[in-house]
Structure formats: C-alpha cells, structure tokens
C-alpha cells in the first residue's frame, strides 16, 4: 500500500508538470488548526470589508473533508502568469494576473484533465477541482504542501519563482505521500510593507483587505472613498506593488501559456486611450478576461477616480 502511495504521488506530479503547472505539492486533508483563530480574528476586525462571502462556510473553509466527503489529500498546484511584456509607462495599470484569459477557465480545464488522468490511471478516485471560487484557503494549503512560505504581503513566495502564480487545488479521496512546509525567507525585509500605496499591510503577514487597491477597484461596488484619492499609483484594476518590489520576484520567468497573453491594445494603450474607451472596445479587449468582473461601468469609475 505504501508503495502504491509513492507510485501514485509520482504519477500525479509528473502529469501536473506535463499539463504546464509550475509546481505540485500534496497535504493530508484535515482541519487547519493554525488558520482557524487567524481567520476568525481577521473577520472580526472587518478586514474583509464588503466581501461578505468571506464570512460564509467558515467550517468548510477550514476543513476540506467537510467540502469533499471522504477526502484524504489536498493537491496544491501553481500556475505561472508572469508576462513577458508589461503595459506602457504612460498608462493606467491592470494587475498582471488579468492580462489574458480569465484564469478560472484556463486552470479549471487543466484540473479536470488532471482528475481524469488520475481516474484513468489509478481507478475509482472521487474528488473536486477548486480555483478560488469555493471556500478553500488556497494559500494555507500551498504553504502546508511545501510550495512556498507565506510572505509578509500574505502572498505565497518561492525562492525559485517568487509569487506571480495562481494557486489551485484538487481535493481527492486517495491517500498519497505528503510534502512538508518550507522555511520562511523574508528575513528583516519590509519592502512590501513600505511600498504599499494605501498601507494595507497593517503588520507583517497581515493585510487589511478593505484597504487594498484591489479591493477598491474590483470588489467595492459603490463609490471609492475620497479618503484614498491620490494614493492609487495609476492602478485601475488590481495592484501588483507588493509583488513588484519583492526581491524574490527577480527570479520570476515568463509564463508559457498562450491563453494568458494579452490583447495587443492592452499593451499599447496610453492613459488617453483608456479615458476614451467605449463599451465596444472594452468587450473586445477583455472578451474572456477577469477584468469583466468590474464591468465597463466599474472600469470607467476607476479611471475617473484616477483622473480627477
């Protein structure tokens, strides 16, 4: 049985690599004891702002066995999205993760393929695929699975590749060999804390989500408060500042996923072009993009806020 675990683990990791995932780590499914009090306190301090969905399914968020019946393993996967080219200097900025096709679609397809492969090679294995659309603490599982450590900006960091990647999971009812966490390599560095335009990193390893530029430009549906005017550093959708200044991201390499390549206009547009964007152009440039979450009206609101 132990031999099978090793064999199945090797099979799964090899297939994950073939599918284009950057890394694959595996943890035993169970209650996240360390995360429970942290999440409870974070919610109690209202650091999720108006993201009410963060309050839902508290027990499932902390225990995958409540999410997938009979689950035994959490397979965590990283997919690189670091682009080879970025926007012009004279442009309103979009977070790099939203340059190409919405990652939910791209990763979900790869995860389904991985699950089908597991079922074809190993037999009757039950499980579900997750891409941050269900109550799963992605970052906690990635850390537990040894894919990196939690950085002071609360993103998962790897010595080899930094932090510009998506995290996804397959939760399955199969015993596998489990990985162990890696050590923290942030040291005395405070680059991300010092650079955050809205001081959203309230202390090392703790981000007040309701102060983050990503929250204001994506999650917040009403008017952006005037108290943060002038501190957005030209970000109109999301923000990469804490990742851009992180010394570990000097090791980031360009992704090889054609679906993550941006529409040419996204790289060419200047501030003036964005200010004049029409619904038609928005639909063309962001046809399958995560930017659609904020809708045309939301993007216009953000641009107007930066312009004033």
From TrEMBL:
GO molecular function per UniProt: 4 iron, 4 sulfur cluster binding; cobalamin binding; epoxyqueuosine reductase activity; metal ion binding
Domain 4Fe-4S ferredoxin-type residue range list: 174-206
Binding site for cob(II)alamin: 61, 132, 156, 167, 214, 239-240
Annotated active site: 132
Cofactors: cob(II)alamin; [4Fe-4S] cluster
Subcellular location: Cytoplasm
Binding site for [4Fe-4S] cluster 2: 196, 212, 239, 242
Cofactor descriptive note: Binds 2 [4Fe-4S] clusters per monomer.
GO cellular component: cytoplasm
The EC number(s) this enzyme carries: 1.17.99.6
Predominant place of localization: cytoplasm
Chain positions recorded as tRNA binding sites: 221
A Pfam cross-reference name: QueG_DUF1730
Keywords (A to Z) from UniProt: 4Fe-4S, Cobalamin, Cobalt, Cytoplasm, Iron, Iron-sulfur, Metal-binding, Oxidoreductase, Queuosine biosynthesis, tRNA processing
Binding site for [4Fe-4S] cluster 1: 186, 189, 192, 246
Assembly and interaction partners: Monomer.
Its biological purpose: Catalyzes the conversion of epoxyqueuosine (oQ) to queuosine (Q), which is a hypermodified base found in the wobble positions of tRNA(Asp), tRNA(Asn), tRNA(His) and tRNA(Tyr).
Similarity comment: family membership: Belongs to the QueG family.
Protein name, entry field: Epoxyqueuosine reductase
Organism: Dokdonia pacifica
